[in-house]
Amino acid sequence: MVEGQSMVLYRAERDRNLQKIDDTIGEMRNWAYFENEEDSAEENYFEQLTNNNLNFVHQPKVTPIVNEPKIGRNAPCPCGSGKKYKKCCGK
Q1: Is residue 62 in a domain?
Q2: pLDDT tens per residue, the chain (91 residues)?
Q3: How many structural domains are present in the chain?
Protein backbone atom coordinates (compact mmCIF):
# COMPACT_ATOMS: atom_id res chain seq x y z
CA MET A 1 0.00 0.00 0.00
CA VAL A 2 1.46 3.34 -1.07
CA GLU A 3 1.12 6.13 1.47
CA GLY A 4 0.92 9.78 0.62
CA GLN A 5 3.44 12.35 1.72
CA SER A 6 1.11 13.82 4.34
CA MET A 7 0.55 10.39 5.92
CA VAL A 8 4.32 9.73 6.09
CA LEU A 9 4.92 13.14 7.72
CA TYR A 10 2.09 12.54 10.18
CA ARG A 11 3.57 9.19 11.26
CA ALA A 12 7.06 10.74 11.51
CA GLU A 13 5.76 13.41 13.89
CA ARG A 14 4.27 10.75 16.18
CA ASP A 15 7.29 8.40 16.13
CA ARG A 16 9.77 8.89 19.00
CA ASN A 17 12.71 7.56 16.96
CA LEU A 18 12.15 10.02 14.13
CA GLN A 19 12.72 13.55 15.35
CA LYS A 20 13.79 16.70 13.59
CA ILE A 21 17.36 17.70 14.40
CA ASP A 22 17.50 21.38 15.32
CA ASP A 23 21.11 21.52 16.55
CA THR A 24 23.24 19.52 14.10
CA ILE A 25 26.55 20.21 15.85
CA GLY A 26 25.13 19.29 19.24
CA GLU A 27 23.64 16.11 17.80
CA MET A 28 26.87 14.96 16.15
CA ARG A 29 29.11 15.87 19.09
CA ASN A 30 28.73 12.39 20.60
CA TRP A 31 29.16 10.50 17.33
CA ALA A 32 32.20 8.24 17.18
CA TYR A 33 33.72 10.04 14.18
CA PHE A 34 33.92 13.39 15.91
CA GLU A 35 36.37 14.21 18.69
CA ASN A 36 35.23 13.87 22.26
CA GLU A 37 37.01 14.16 25.62
CA GLU A 38 38.37 10.60 25.54
CA ASP A 39 39.98 11.16 22.14
CA SER A 40 41.66 14.38 23.22
CA ALA A 41 43.03 12.64 26.34
CA GLU A 42 44.54 9.91 24.16
CA GLU A 43 46.06 12.52 21.85
CA ASN A 44 47.60 14.35 24.82
CA TYR A 45 49.07 11.09 26.11
CA PHE A 46 50.53 10.31 22.67
CA GLU A 47 52.03 13.81 22.44
CA GLN A 48 53.66 13.35 25.87
CA LEU A 49 55.16 10.05 24.76
CA THR A 50 56.57 11.52 21.56
CA ASN A 51 57.94 14.62 23.32
CA ASN A 52 59.67 12.55 26.01
CA ASN A 53 61.14 10.07 23.54
CA LEU A 54 62.25 11.91 20.41
CA ASN A 55 63.94 8.76 19.11
CA PHE A 56 60.47 7.27 18.80
CA VAL A 57 59.55 9.84 16.16
CA HIS A 58 62.91 10.30 14.43
CA GLN A 59 63.98 6.72 13.82
CA PRO A 60 66.22 6.20 10.79
CA LYS A 61 64.51 4.63 7.83
CA VAL A 62 65.67 1.11 7.14
CA THR A 63 65.75 -0.22 3.61
CA PRO A 64 63.83 -3.47 3.36
CA ILE A 65 65.72 -6.66 2.56
CA VAL A 66 64.73 -7.97 -0.85
CA ASN A 67 65.48 -11.60 -1.61
CA GLU A 68 66.50 -12.37 -5.17
CA PRO A 69 64.22 -14.84 -6.92
CA LYS A 70 65.51 -18.41 -6.85
CA ILE A 71 66.96 -19.69 -10.12
CA GLY A 72 65.18 -22.75 -11.45
CA ARG A 73 67.22 -25.87 -12.24
CA ASN A 74 66.23 -25.81 -15.92
CA ALA A 75 66.69 -22.05 -16.33
CA PRO A 76 69.72 -20.72 -18.24
CA CYS A 77 72.72 -20.13 -16.01
CA PRO A 78 73.18 -16.46 -15.00
CA CYS A 79 76.95 -16.70 -15.58
CA GLY A 80 76.33 -16.50 -19.34
CA SER A 81 77.75 -19.88 -20.34
CA GLY A 82 74.58 -20.87 -22.19
CA LYS A 83 74.25 -24.08 -20.20
CA LYS A 84 71.38 -24.93 -17.90
CA TYR A 85 71.88 -23.83 -14.31
CA LYS A 86 71.84 -27.44 -13.04
CA LYS A 87 74.72 -28.42 -15.39
CA CYS A 88 76.83 -25.29 -14.74
CA CYS A 89 76.81 -23.34 -11.46
CA GLY A 90 74.03 -25.31 -9.76
CA LYS A 91 76.18 -28.35 -8.96
Answers
A1: no
A2: 567 888 888 887 788 777 777 888 887 777 766 665 656 667 777 777 767 666 655 667 778 888 888 888 899 998 989 899 989 987 7
A3: 1
